């Protein structure tokens, strides 16, 4: 008997790889409050538009950044007290209800020796903010985790993912002005792009990279 030919259909449960800081959580907003305390200065002296590394706030070296970051996480519960970026809960829940698998992928463990606090605060924040997810990955190289669609705000991560052929939606903010499409200003915009991408994947299964057997 002839073996049955496998259909080249994409997995119906597409995986969305979702970044946390700058995508679900307003990292710089809360960090700005903590930095004002750290430097003993008033909040309005610290600009709201910043770039990676926070030089606009007078953080000049990697060591200074790490000290501020350590203070923020261990003494001010940074990852538990971030504000949610509007729309994250609503649209991730919609996507989850529609069958997408939400995989949180974050690089929050990039400074050593307070991983327990960082992970614990992250899990509590996700539950407290009603963010639906099945997988939680603490990873630097996000493409190692695997997702059909990535949502990111870091220019470096976006460039790397796109270079390797991963469909990556940028959520626009002051750190990624130069990043091109696909890009959205809000979670509503992200939702529309994800839906269009899903249609395209099911129209042309080969774009998922699945080989015909
Ligand atoms: Mg980010």
CATH class of the domain at 15-26 and 82-207: Alpha Beta
Report, as a whole number of angstroms, the end-to-end distance. 17 Å
Sequence stretches where pLDDT stays below 50 over 5 or more residues: none
In this entry the ligands are:
magnesium ion
Backbone shape: globular
Strand content is: 5-15%
Portion in helices:
25-40%
Instruction: Count helical runs.
Output: 7
Largest sheet: 6 strands, parallel
Q: Count the beta strands.
A: 6
Which architecture of the domain at 15-26 and 82-207 would the CATH scheme give at its second level?
A: 3-Layer(aba) Sandwich
Which secondary-structure class do the elements indicate?
alpha/beta
> What's the mean pLDDT score?
91
CATH topology of the domain at 15-26 and 82-207: Rossmann fold
CATH-defined superfamily of the domain at 15-26 and 82-207: HAD superfamily/HAD-like
Rounded radius of gyration (Å) = 19 Å
Order of helices and strands: EHHHHEHEEHEEH
Strand order of the largest sheet: 3-2-1-4-5-6
Which structural traits does this protein have?
single chain, 213 residues, Rossmann fold, 6 strands, binds magnesium ion
């Amino acid at each position: 008997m002839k073996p049955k030919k496998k259909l080249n259909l994409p997995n119906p449960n597409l995986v969305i790889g979702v970044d946390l800081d700058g995508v679900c959580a307003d990292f710089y907003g809360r960090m700005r409050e903590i930095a004002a305390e750290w430097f003993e200065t008033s909040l309005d002296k610290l600009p709201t538009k910043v770039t990676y590394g926070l030089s606009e706030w007078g953080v000049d070296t990697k060591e200074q950044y790490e000290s501020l970051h350590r203070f923020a996480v261990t003494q001010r519960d940074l990852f538990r007290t971030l504000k949610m970026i509007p729309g994250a809960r609503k649209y991730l829940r919609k996507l989850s209800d529609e069958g997408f698998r939400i995989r949180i992928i974050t690089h929050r463990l990039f400074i050593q020796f307070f991983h327990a606090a960082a992970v614990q605060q992250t899990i509590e924040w996700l539950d407290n903010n009603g963010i639906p997810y099945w997988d939680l990955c603490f990873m630097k190289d996000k493409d190692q985790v695997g997702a059909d669609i990535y949502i990111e705000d870091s220019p470096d991560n976006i460039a790397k993912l796109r270079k390797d052929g991963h469909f990556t939606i940028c959520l626009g903010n002051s750190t990624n002005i130069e990043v091109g499409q696909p890009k959205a200003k809000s979670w509503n915009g992200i939702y529309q792009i994800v839906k269009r991408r899903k249609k395209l994947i099911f129209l042309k299964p080969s774009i998922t990279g699945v080989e015909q057997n």
